[in-house]
Amino acid sequence: MTFTSQLIAERSPLGSRASVKEQEYLCHVYVRNDGLAGVVIADNEYPQRVCFTLLDKVLDEFSRQVSKMDWPSGSPATISYSALDGYLSKYQNPRDADPMTRVQAELDETKIILHNTMESLLERGEKLDDLVSKSEVLGAQSKAFYKTARKQNSCCEIM
Q1: Cys-Cys link to 31, which of 37, 38, 41, 138 (CB 3.0-4.6 A)?
Q2: Do residues 42 and 48 lie in contact, with contact meaning Cβ atoms separated by under 8 Å?
Q3: How far apart are CA 57 and CA 46, in angstroms?
Q4: From 3.30.70.20, 3.30.450.50, 3.30.565.10, 3.10.50.30, which CATH number describes the 2-97 domain?
């Protein structure tokens, strides 16, 4: 993966963002205009926007902490940059790290709840329609019973 990351970063133009599929992973690369580049390797399910947010934050902080003179000659063994581990642990779950992903997940959950509520309301509406039709039938039968009883009682006189 190191070779792939280096190759992608070298072939990407300055100021560009790109995603390249490598086997079952996606390699997200961001090359800034100053030549500093970063690559995130993630699975297909990890949101692309979150990868580029992570790259942007890491590269900004790296450029503030590490002298520009050390970039070309430096290697991970010679450059001290300790904040990367914190970012990687924070971004393990994109929902916790990214507010937009969190809001989207909450919206998806709300949408599921809303669909379930609508389905139960429709079922309840169908049951109410059944009750209304049964009560109309019962009302018609009670009117018929009342008319029949009245006719039966009209032929006899009470003394």
Answers
A1: 37
A2: no
A3: 17
A4: 3.30.450.50
